[in-house]
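so i finally got all the pieces together for this one. its two components total, 653 residues if u count the protein bits. some of the lines might not be protein, just check the labels. i wanna see the whole assembly predicted at once instead of chain by chain like last time, that was a mess tbh
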Amino acid sequence: MRKISLVSLEPNRKGRVVEILGGASLNNKLMSMGLYIGKEITKLSHIGLRGPVVIKVGRSILALGHGMASKIMVEIE
Amino acid sequence: MIKKIYLIGNPNVGKSVVFSRLTGVQVMSSNYPGTTVEISKGYLRLGEERVEVVDLPGTYSLEPSSSAEKVAVSLLNEYPRNEMVVINILDATNLERNLLLTLQLVEAGYPVIVSLNMCDDAGHRGINIDTTKLEKLIGVPVISTCAVTGLGIKLLIERIKEGSPTVKKSLTNEDRWKEIGAIIQQVQSLEHRHHTLREVLEDASVRPLTGLIMAAGIIYASFKIVRFIGETIIARITDPIFSNLYQPVLEKLTLCWQESGFWFHLLIGDLIDGKIDFKQSLGVLTTAPYIEFGMVLPYIVAFYFILSLLEDIGYLPRLAILLDNVLHRLGLHGYAIIPVLLGFGCNVPGILSTRILESKRERFIASTIISIGVPCVPLQAMIFGLLGQFGGFYVGGVYLVLFSLIIILGLVLNRIMKGYSPELLIEIPPYRLPPLATLAKKLYFRIKGFIVEAVPVVIAGVLVINILLYFKLFDFITAIFAPFLKGLFGLPKESIVALVIGFFRKDVAVGMLMPLGLSAKQLFISATLLAISFPCIATFIVLWKELGLKDLIKSTLIMITISVIVGTALNFLIPH
């Protein structure tokens, strides 16, 4: 088990969210969109060097800005 | 008794389509989150009663995080619970995420009816939902609907009366997600389907390399198609009508009037080489209708056809993620591409849709950029009309100046404005092929909007200009501005009239500039100045409403400064 951020996760890999390093407002926002601690996600892509990260959560596809993605820590096998 | 019905749901689940079905009121709907930025109201007949239906902006939760969400939630508490019903619209293709809001609504004690929308699409994707079981588990009526085709809407209306408040204990969001997990297990079954072409394309458009290739192709094709449709309409429909049908009628009329009289001047304008010239005569019956119907309308049709298609397919959010990186440097994030694209049609809806951006700072930057650097269709038609004769070099030049201004302005504003801009966080919708009837309706709606708003202003504008010209009332303004115009921009004093008129409507100004016999360089400078100086009056009013007086003044000062600098720079840099 390794803990890395969504930015470092490689495309097409799965991970489980273990920590969201942000304030309550970010946590709430992501929580209401279905992204919360314990949720399994698949990273789809990363646009450019400092561009957004695209992930699949359940049946939704979410795009998150680079800074936000770097605050979401996932656990991988 | 029910007095009010609220439509609430996550972004992009088709609330506005359900709203149109219930009330018959046509509202804009597209396949991207945040189409609805204004609250629309309509009426539904329920037995003997006429009940008001309110379409709320999409929200993920009752604990709002954006300004649009806050509006939605505060409106819900305006009426006593026993006099209202909340129709919670869910996207059946993404039931799990949608249920959080449903549980929150039920727990808060609202009388809820669930409309499980897009069930046809769910079927295509191999998702089966047991609605009876779902109804039992969440304790409120659940009706399958497909609002685009109207399926299930009748049943939904019949069951509205069943909405009644339930008592349920309040959970935390963590517990709600656990409960939702359990509900999904029981009501949803997935059939395994092979990846369809649609899913392959959905995937390709969010990956860097394939995404960029697709974006370049789509943007290029869009430009080509808009020009092709616009030019075809002009060559095949509008020009023949004007020259073969309308002109002979007008010429008969002119024979009855004495030339150079007041009415002749007002309605027909000046004869160019003894003939009516639709582009230059500048009469209420000649140039005014020609500009609107013969020059601008064909491109309005073409532009909105392509924009509506891209909106409804669901491509725009994908463009947003590709451009996020660049827009971030301008103090915006990728989603700002949506107001910008709408602004290319007309700045008014563009600036209104900046409400999808979270912070005031972003809204200021986006609105200012749109007002200065994004030319609307009438303005673009004018740029082509004025400069097309000198070749693509000049037309392209105006676009290049505008594009550079957007970039420079964004970079500078992002540097000097306080605060920082929030980051992109959006949901990418699946591709959907819009039914042709839906697309046609939307196009009709937009074209009608253009005609209703633009034509009266253009006619009134030409009328007023002609009266002022006839009584030589412009001479005063031209005298004041003459040294300024000549010295800085190298323009003759008469062109100030066109620049002032541009404040009312950009497309009227074309008729003012044409007869002046300007050189290519002078036309280039005036077209650029018209684009960047002031937005038209309609945009100005919206800017005021959206930004407030203080920011409007700030934005206006930026516009004036930039116009003076750019106009002067072009005048001194471009060789004669």
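Chain A has a mean pLDDT of 93.
Helices of chain A lie at 24-32, 66-70.
anyway lmk what u think
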